[in-house]
Please model this.
Amino acid sequence: MADVTREKLERPVSAVVLTDEAVAKITALLRDAEPGLALQVAVEPGGCAGLRYQLFFTDKYAKALLRMRAERTGEAFPDDEESAAQSAALEADGMFVGWFGAVAVLTSAHDDHQLTGARVGYQETLENWGFTIDNPSTTAPCSCSGAELCAVGGPRA
Model:
């Protein structure tokens, strides 16, 4: 992938920040998964504060992300049509890539402004466990008691 394209897609500072606990849990979840999976964070209308988050793993850009990771670490990666096509798709789809160690986090240009400053965490307690999202740009208090991951970091996914 050309450096210009890589600079467009990779961000020195991701809109979304992962806590160390979240990175550790994602790394553990991906340990036995196929290489190149990324965590995508998306926003959709709904929830008690007007936004609801989606956290999911995607392999849609796996080859492109493996190539980016190799370029970041100075490893060799063979040029192939699939990684080039996926790199072009990343750009065409308006996706941004943030890196937390070996964990790639994808956000779309559409959702990026709503996610700026959001922190994805992970916690385990006797009462609750799961990923949390704290978004300082959301001002409405969370009052949901459902199983959704709301825009103020309420119930756990």
Q: What stands out?
A: The longest helix spans residues 62-73. Helices lie at 3-9, 20-30, 62-73, 81-92, 109-115.
